[in-house]
């Protein structure tokens, strides 16, 4: 007899938002699965055909294996130990999820495992920072952003990007900002004027203000040049704030 399945588990708002982007009946690989929470949730809600939880370190691997076994979904979820996409066979996963890690790490994992994505139809990516690096990778590798979401949890904004193979430039067209700003904010979040986008822009302005404050007393030519660049960047973000205010009128 198989392990008796537990009742539905609770997951964070961040992971719930990730889960909502995954259509039913897919083989889903969650790389860096954090106790396989997402895959167990998808199985409980009858979304998952089959799941693969990948962990690079022994401790998290054992934690994920224990969670899957305790939940009773061992027949549906396979937990594997390995580095990034190396846990997958080429074309094995319909959907690949990388959530809860830095954007540079997400881009690195995808680059090192590109050959495993030939039959993958959807990437769901949730960077904790440097989302622009994730969007740049998608743009350069031919993945079109199809959906974006912002979620606030514990006072922190989390961005989620879903992409499929397609026309990577398309989401960026027709918007009044430079590519670097759109890669930071998310082109679809801008197009949809997401209600949390104003807070996201305010974070960028605050970051620039702190950087400018740290250079107030500096007198070297290099520091003064840096001040000028930061001030110019701040004016660009103020233009975004103004645009958002106008759109809400």
Descriptive terms for the model:
249 residues; Rossmann fold; 2 domains; 7-stranded mixed beta sheet; elongated; TrmK; transferase; SAM-dependent_MTases_sf; methyltransferase; tRNA (Adenine22-N1)-methyltransferase
Q: Please identify which CATH superfamily of the largest domain we are dealing with.
A: Vaccinia Virus protein VP39
What is CATH's topology name of the largest domain?
Rossmann fold
- What's the CATH first level of the largest domain? Alpha Beta
3D shape: elongated
Tally of discrete structural domains? 2
Give an overview of the whole structure.
By secondary structure, the chain is α/β, with parallel strands linked by helices. The chain folds into two domains: 13-170, Rossmann fold; 198-246. Helix content is 44%, strand content 21%. It contains nine helices and seven strands. Strands 3-2-1-4-5-7-6 form a seven-stranded mixed β-sheet, sandwiched between helices. Strand 1 (26-31), helix 2 and strand 2 (48-55) form a beta-alpha-beta unit. The model has no long low-confidence stretch (mean pLDDT 94).
Write the layout of secondary structure elements.
Layout: H1 13-20, E1 26-31, H2 37-44, E2 48-55, H3 58-71, E3 77-81, E4 95-101, H4 103-112, E5 122-127, H5 131-141, E6 143-153, E7 156-165, H6 179-185, H7 187-192, H8 197-214, H9 221-248
Parallel strand pairs: 1-2, 1-4, 2-3, 4-5
Antiparallel strand pairs: 5-7, 6-7
Helix pairs in contact: 1-2, 4-5, 5-6, 8-9
Question: Nutshell version of this structure?
Answer:
This protein has helices spanning 13-20, 37-44, 58-71, 103-112, 131-141, 179-185, 187-192, 197-214, 221-248; strands at 26-31, 48-55, 77-81, 95-101, 122-127, 143-153, 156-165.
